[in-house]
């Protein structure tokens, strides 16, 4: 395979998130004019509207996810003929979604994250209390996040459903130029695993029975 990086750079409001997502947002009002209480932070969050976004407007993330499942489908079709030769391929796509906020890592697919993020203040000692730990995996020679939720998905639509849920859990801190600015880093992890099983063969005289 190939490793590639897409680097979206620009000031707040220049379109970085839109380039990656392409989705429409419903901007929530600040509440009724006669209301005596301020709206909650959750109530002020813009709502992601995938169903209201035409496909031609989709950004890099949904296009890449769809292409991934299209390729998996083509690989499955090719593996059908290989089964007769004693090989069987299985494919698995799993998704995780995390946010690095105030130097801490939070799981956006964990329902408890909304509460945890809401109370995430700067640590006095710079510790990761309230967030997940980042560990080095010597076997895979890569960093991993402990206890990160991971969901197996069977379609691109299912991946994007998890994406929507994660975005709603994401901590935002609006600026004068962008109401949905997060002032943080969000990472969507989509992992494709392919396993090839070699069927055992039993030799009976001159015949081979699989």
Topology, pairings included?
Layout (H helix, E strand, L loop, with lengths): L15 H5 L3 E3 L14 H4 L2 E3 L10 H24 L3 E15 L2 E4 L5 H6 L15 E4 L4 E4 L5 E3 L2 H14 L15 E14 L3 E3 L2 E3 L1
Antiparallel strand pairs: 1-2, 3-4, 3-7, 3-8, 5-6, 9-10
Helix pairs in contact: 3-5
Could you explain the architecture of this structure?
With 210 residues, the protein is an alpha+beta fold. Helix content is 25%, strand content 27%. It contains five helices and ten strands, in the order H-E-H-E-H-E-E-H-E-E-E-H-E-E-E. The strands form four sheets. Strands 3, 4, 7 and 8 form a four-stranded antiparallel sheet that branches. Strand 5 and strand 6 form a beta hairpin. Helix 3 packs antiparallel against helix 5. The longest helix is centred in the middle third of the chain and has 24 residues. About 7% of the residues have low confidence.
Q: How would you describe the shape?
A: globular
How does the major sheet shape up? 4 strands, antiparallel
Radius of gyration: 22 Å
Q: List unreliable stretches of 5+ residues.
A: 33-40, 122-128
Helix-strand makeup class? alpha+beta
What's the SSE pattern? Answer: HEHEHEEHEEEHEEE
Total helices: the number is 5
User: Proportion of β residues?
Assistant: 25-35%
- The overall strand count is 10
Mean pLDDT: 77
């Amino acid at each position: 395979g190939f490793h590639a990086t897409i680097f979206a750079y620009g000031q707040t409001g220049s379109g970085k998130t839109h380039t990656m997502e392409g989705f429409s947002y419903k901007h929530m009002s600040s509440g009724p004019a006669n209301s005596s209480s301020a709206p909650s932070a959750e109530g002020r969050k813009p709502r992601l509207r995938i169903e209201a976004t035409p496909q031609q407007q989709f950004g890099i993330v949904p296009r890449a996810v769809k292409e991934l499942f299209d390729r998996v489908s083509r690989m499955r079709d090719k593996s059908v003929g290989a089964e007769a030769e004693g090989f069987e391929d299985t494919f698995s796509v799993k998704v995780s979604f995390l946010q690095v906020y105030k130097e801490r890592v939070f799981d956006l697919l964990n329902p408890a994250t909304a509460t945890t993020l809401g109370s995430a203040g700067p640590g006095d000692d710079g510790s990761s209390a309230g967030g997940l730990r980042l560990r080095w995996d010597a076997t895979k020679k890569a960093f991993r996040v402990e206890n990160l939720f991971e969901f197996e998905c069977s379609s691109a639509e299912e991946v994007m459903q998890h994406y929507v849920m994660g975005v709603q859990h994401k901590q935002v801190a609006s600026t004068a130029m962008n109401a949905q600015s997060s002032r943080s880093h969000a990472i969507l992890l989509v992992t494709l695993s392919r396993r090839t099983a070699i069927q055992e063969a039993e030799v009976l005289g001159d015949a081979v029975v699989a």
